[in-house]
Design a protein that fits this description.
The complex is a heterodimer of chains A (366) and B (332). In chain A, α1 packs across α3, α1 packs antiparallel against α4 and α9 packs across α10. Chain A is of the alpha/beta class and 366 residues long. Chain A has two domains: 172 residues, 3-Layer(aba) Sandwich (Aldehyde Dehydrogenase, Chain A, domain 1), CATH 3.40.605; 175 residues, Aldehyde Dehydrogenase, Chain A, domain 2. Helices cover 36% and strands 22% of the residues of chain A. In chain B, α8 packs across α9. The chains are: A alpha/beta (366), B alpha/beta (332). The interface between A and B is large, with 55 and 39 residues.
Amino acid sequence: MTTTERAHALAAAAEPFRALLGPTSAADLLAWVEAELGSAEALDRWVPHGRARTKALAPGTILHVVSGNTPHAALQTLIGGLLLGSRNLVKLPRNGLAEVDGFLSRLPKSMQALAESSKDLPDSWLSSVDAVIVYGSDETVSALRARTPAGKIFIGHGHKASLGIVWDDPEFASCAGAARDASLFDQQGCLSPQAFYVRESRPGFVRAYAEHLASAMEHFNRTHPRGPLTLEEKAEIANLRAAYRFRAAGDLRVALWEGGGNLDWTVIYEEDLWFNASPLNRVIFVKPLPEDLADAMGPAAGHVGAIGLFPCTEELAGRFAALRPSRICPVGRMQDPPWTWHNGGVASLASLVKWVDFEPPSGLTA
Amino acid sequence: MTAHPLETMLLAWIRSPDTRSPGEVLPELHASHFRRNAAYRAFCRSLGVPEQVADWRQIPCVPQDAFKHADLRSFPPEETIKTFRTSGTTGEGFGQHHFRTLEIYEAAVLEGWRHAGLPTGPFLVIAPHPDESPHSSLSHMLATLAPREAFIAPGGEIDFDRLRAATTSVCLLGTALGFLHLCEQLGDRRLGLPPGSTAMETGGYKGSGRNISRTDLYGRISHALGIAPEDIINEYGMTELSSQFYARGPRGRHHGPPWACAIVADPVTLQEVGEGETGILLVYDAANVGSVAGIRTQDLAIRREGSFELLGRDPAALPRGCSRAADEWLAR
């Protein structure tokens, strides 16, 4: 199959997963290949490369270790591997991933043969593959990196924390988008914001923003209810709410908005600038934007995934690029990365291929 | 310093537990805290809880985390004679538990130990002495039980000769992490303590990057020291409390003294869960005379016939983000 044929088959199989993957047309996938490999046909034929020609060679076999709480990431990495034409082994979480099974079942037989999934991770998989892609905590990534034989391509997507920055929004126009960003996938993904830092453009603005965001969270929840919670998750959110309820009772620098008795969503306004890790499942902090955001981020500063920005201007993006996120995008679009996104700062396809150059006997082309 | 009448009454109750009940004492304690403790009063008012409550179960439980952010002193600050601190992480700060007197705290430690029927010593302690950790409530508790010379790990270095020199049964006290280090330092060697020896471990592994089950830890201690797992005791306590709960053996259930009540509750409604069900642990500790009586802990437990089975500490330590399922695999 050519890259174009694979792209069409993948786009057709992805259609029912639009909510997870966003727009996924064959043209989108081919544009991804072109953006990373210079030509959409780089895997199929010799393409011009300087004065010579070159061709991209996909890894024979890729191992994807994926997590259960981010099915979209599992599908994205699998689609990348299949688009390259590689054989793909998928280590599924303990409870499996219906999305992966459903997606694979929609592929033509010839492409189904390129994928195999398992809830276990046989040692033979690690030793037999050419590339390993891992989604997990830093500890998981490190452990698998150590187990991966030398010489193999290893791409680890460890823990990331994302945030939103609201620079100027006098009419609270970004709140609906911020609520969407903080609610989709119940905040489980590395693109899910855990805090919004809001510039205090007028006295009391940040607190007012938090209140508007709370209304937007409630509005979003009516049409997109949160998924089920484990007892541990309930306890963690309830404990956090209780702690902030206590503080809010005697401290005007703290405020809490709680969505429903069912822990639907939680917005916490806090003047303290320090970046708090959210317990997830729609718990979002709103804090004043400090002069030195990197300092306020503390240990999380080295793990910034995405920054949602409002307004999303090139000038502001430049101001916050020093936090080294792999993506800066408008608030409201944090959960819709394009296929060309450098996930983790890495070119997902280009980092997997090797190149073979061909210099024709007739001499190098001009 | 003159004892407050409430302190005198509590001390008498702790020393003679049959004389009173939590239903009598806790509402009185709550009323005192309500009057004297501004942060607690604001919290109660925000929940609509008045100064006078008819049932001690109406007393609100202060989140453990509140000790990091509020002054929960129920007495004038200038009367403070001791402050215990929790360990804190960067940016998070640490919790503080202030005391006007340590007499009630120490009585609760000693009488609680006696009430649980635990060994009377001699003790050996593999944890810092209060001289080394003056803000550690655990060190103070251990020093209340054991004399200065029983502390055999100065600077964190365990004096194995002192362990080997034991000729009669001893009760070895320490943190779970301390026992783990002891076992790891011994490696394959065994240091059999005299028959009848016991051990008491406490605390979790937060911040250490370690996490092993109680069964596993007790197996290692048993192998290293020759103490049967059923003779190893777990203490459940915390800086924010003055009393302790104890469980025997790897699957033991925790029981507390008469002046401290534990309730396993639904984390959202705070209603007590049914027998055998899981919830968060609420503790009412009457020995907390100088702070607040009700504490909402961050721990999960199963309700078991007047006791609780501790499931694990600090749900906040759960991995989060794109990691949970992959970590499940790693842990297998």
